[in-house]
Amino acid sequence: MSNTFALKGLFIDTPVPGELRCREGFLVCENGTVEGFYDALPERYAAVPVRDCAGKLIIPGMSDLHLHAPQYSYCGTAMDLELLEWLDNYTYPEEARYADIAHAKAYYEVFTRDLLHSATTRAAIFATIHTDATLELMRQLEKAGLGAYVGKLNMDRNCPDFYSEHTPERGEAETRRWLDQCREAGFERVFPILTPRFTPSVTDAYMEKIGGLSREYGAAMQSHLSENLSEIEWVKALCPDAETYADTYARYGLFGGECKTIMAHCIYCPEAEDRMMKEGHVFIAHCPTSNENVIAGVAPAARYLRQGYETGLGSDVAGGHTLDLFAVMAAAVQVSKLRWRYVDQSEKPLTMAEALYMATAGGGRFFGKVGLFEEGYCFDAVVIDDSAHHNLRAFTPAERIERCAYLGGARVTDKYVDGHKIL
Amino acid sequence: MSNTFALKGLFIDTPVPGELRCREGFLVCENGTVEGFYDALPERYAAVPVRDCAGKLIIPGMSDLHLHAPQYSYCGTAMDLELLEWLDNYTYPEEARYADIAHAKAYYEVFTRDLLHSATTRAAIFATIHTDATLELMRQLEKAGLGAYVGKLNMDRNCPDFYSEHTPERGEAETRRWLDQCREAGFERVFPILTPRFTPSVTDAYMEKIGGLSREYGAAMQSHLSENLSEIEWVKALCPDAETYADTYARYGLFGGECKTIMAHCIYCPEAEDRMMKEGHVFIAHCPTSNENVIAGVAPAARYLRQGYETGLGSDVAGGHTLDLFAVMAAAVQVSKLRWRYVDQSEKPLTMAEALYMATAGGGRFFGKVGLFEEGYCFDAVVIDDSAHHNLRAFTPAERIERCAYLGGARVTDKYVDGHKIL
Q1: What secondary structure, in 3-state letters, does A345-365 show?
Q2: How far apart are CA B20 and CA B24, in angstroms?
Q3: pLDDT given at position B389
Q4: Residues of A in contact with B330 (CB under 8 A)
Q5: What percent of chain A has pLDDT over 90?
Q6: Counting beta carbons within 10 angstroms of the beta carbon of residue A29, is it exposed (0 to 12), middle (13 to 18) or buried (19 or more)?
Q7: Do residue B76 and residue A392 have CB atoms under 8 angstroms apart?
Q8: Are B76 and A390 within 8 A, CB to CB?
Q9: Nearest by CB: B77 against A73, A343, A395
Q10: What pTM was computed for the model?
Q11: Exposure pattern of B130-167 as b/e (b: 16+ CB <10 Å)?
Q12: Residue B407: its pLDDT value, please?
C-alpha cells in the first residue's frame, strides 16, 4: 500500500461537457492512477495517508493545448502592435536568443516555475528551432514533474535569416538529432512533438520530411490552422495544389489518424477541414485570450465542443496574455458571447461548466486518461485555495469555480501529476 | 509648508489621449493640489518631506464612472444566466437586502475596503433605493478618503414589489430626505447623484420629479443608455412620445448641460443621441468587461474618444466582473479589437495609452481637475508595485503599464486623494 494515498475534500470535475460534478469525499490514488472516489474511506484504506483539503477546491489538473514557451518573457506586452510588427520586433528576435543555451536555461526556468504554480499539469508547447534549448526546456519540465509534449520548431521559409533552418535537409537532420536525443533522455512524462510552425513557415519539401519523421518515430504533431483570413489566402498562394489549408499538412500524413495532432485556433475552417478534423480526431486548441488580442476573430468553439470534436483550451502565450487557464476559461465564455452577438446566433454561448470541461477533460484526452476523477485516470489533481475571494455569501462550488475564472487570484496550494506531489 | 510634500519616482500620465507621458522626478503637492513636476527638487522645497517610490510606477488615481456597489457581493458569478434570470435571481433579491442597515454596513465595508486597495480614487456609484443604506455607503467612502458620487436609486415600475418605491410621490419624498441628509452630513469628497435606474424602471411622472430635484439641489445624474436593442425597443414602447431613449431623460432636464450627467454603455446610440451627448458634455461610461459578459455588444468607445466626447471607463460591477480598472483597460483594448473585426473596420482599435487616458484623465474630468499630474490638478496619485511580474527583460514604462493591465496582480502600495495619503 506504499503507493496508495487519498485526498479528502470537495472534488469538482466534468464527466459530461456542460455539467459540473461536485462531490465531497475521498479520492484514492494507487500507483499514480485514480483507484476510486468514496463518500467515506473504505475500511481497507484505513491505514493510508489522507491529506485533508478542507475549505479548498480540488479539480483535475488542467491541460494547456497550445503555448509558445519562449514568448513567455514578453507576455502581456506589445498587444497594440500589428501582427507583422509583433513578429518582427518581438517574436523572432526573442526566439532567436534561445540559440544561447544560458539564455534558454534562465528564461525557461522562469517559465517552468510559473507553469508549475498555475493550475496546468499538462501542456503542448512550442519551443524554438534550437535542439539544445528545446531539450533544456524538456529537462526542466520533466524535473518539475509536469507532463508535456514539447516541439522543436520547424521553419525554412518566410522567416528572418537569423532565425531559420534554411533548408529542408538541415532542418530534417537537426530534427532527427533532437528526436534521437529525446529517446536517449528517456523522459517519463515529457515527449517530443513535431512542430512545423505553420504552413507559411515550412516548404512542402520540408513538410514531407516532417511527415516521414512522424511515421518513423511515431511522433505526434502540432501546428496552427485557419486563424485568420489573410493567412488562409497566403497558404492558398503558397500551396496552390492543396485543397485546403488542412490539406497542406494532411497530404504528408500530418493531420490526425495515426499522427496524433493538435491544431491551434481553427477560426475559419471550411466544412472540408471540419470533416477532416472530426474523422482524424484532431484536437482543436481553442485560444480565446488570443482571439481577444490578435484581432483574428473568435473560433466556433461552442459548436466544436457540442458536435463532439476533440476540443481543449490553449493559453497561446504570448498571443494570449496569460498562462492561467482559469483566465482562459473566462475568456472562452466571454468571446463566445461576442461571437453569438456578432457572428452566429444559432449557437448559444459557452457556459463556465463547458469551459472547465475543455480545460480539463477535453484537453486532457490528448495526454491519455487525463482530466477526470474516475477510476483508471491519471491522478492529476490541483488543490485551490480561493479564500482570497471575499466570501460574504455562501457560494456554491460552481460559483467558486466561476469566481476563480473571473476574479483571478486563486492560489494553487498542492498539485499532483500521476500521483506525484509536485507542488 | 506643512501641507507640502513631494513624491519621487517614475510618473506616468496622459495629457493627450493616446500618448503616455513618462517622467522621472519629483511631484510636489501643496494644499492638496499638484504644485508642479520637477526633474530635480527646487531649492525652496529642500525641507519638505519626500517619499521615494523607487522601482515603482506612479499614475494618477483612476476614476470609475459606473458601478453598482450592492452587486459587489456576487461579482464574478452567474455570468451564464440570461439578463432577466440574473436580475430576478441575483440583482433584485440582493439589492433588496440593503433595507437592513446591518447588512448594508457589513457588505459595504467589504466593498469599500476592496475599492480602497484598487487603483481607483474616484467613482460614480449606484447604491440601492434605500436612503439609510446609501448614506451608510457614503459615510464609509468619505471615511476611507475616496472621492465619489453615490446615488440612491429611483425605481417605481417594472421592478418586484419587494424592491420598489411604488409611486413617484413616495420616491420623491424619500429622495428629498436623502438629499437633505447628504447636505447635513457635510461630506467633503462624497456627493449625491440622482440615479433613475434606467427609463424602464422609472415612470415619466417620477422622471419629471427627479428633474425638478436636480434643478432644486443642483444635483448631477447618472443612468444607463442604449445598452441593448431589446432595451431600446422597450423604452420606445414605454415612452412612445419620446424622440429617442436619451430624450426620455433630456425632456426632464436630466441629460447634460446644467445637469452634470453620466450615461453608462451607449452601445447603440443613434446619431441624434450622439449629438445630444456631445452638446451636453454628457460623460460616457464605457464598460468593456460588461460588454464581454452581458452579450449586449461592444460600445464604439474608440470613436467617442477620438471625436472628443467625454469618455471614461466603468467597471460596471457586477455586470462587469471586477473592480480593477487595470483589467477594465485591457478589456477595453480587447473588445475594441473584436468590434473592429466584426462591426466597424473604419475605426482602429483602442490602444493601451488610450485606455489609460480613459481610466484617468478622461473619467477624471467628471470629478473636476482630476486625472493628470499637472499644476492645479487634485493630487490624486497611486503608487504601484509591479515587481510580481517577473522582469527577465527590462520593460519600458509603457510595457509595465500594459503588463499591469493584462497580467493583473500589481499591488497598490500608496494612494493619495487631494494630497491625503489614504493607503
Answers
A1: CCCCCCCHHHHHHHHHHHHHH
A2: 13
A3: 85
A4: 321
A5: 95
A6: buried
A7: no
A8: no
A9: A395
A10: 0.97
A11: bbbbbbbbbbbbbebbbbbbbbbbbbbbebeeebbbee
A12: 94
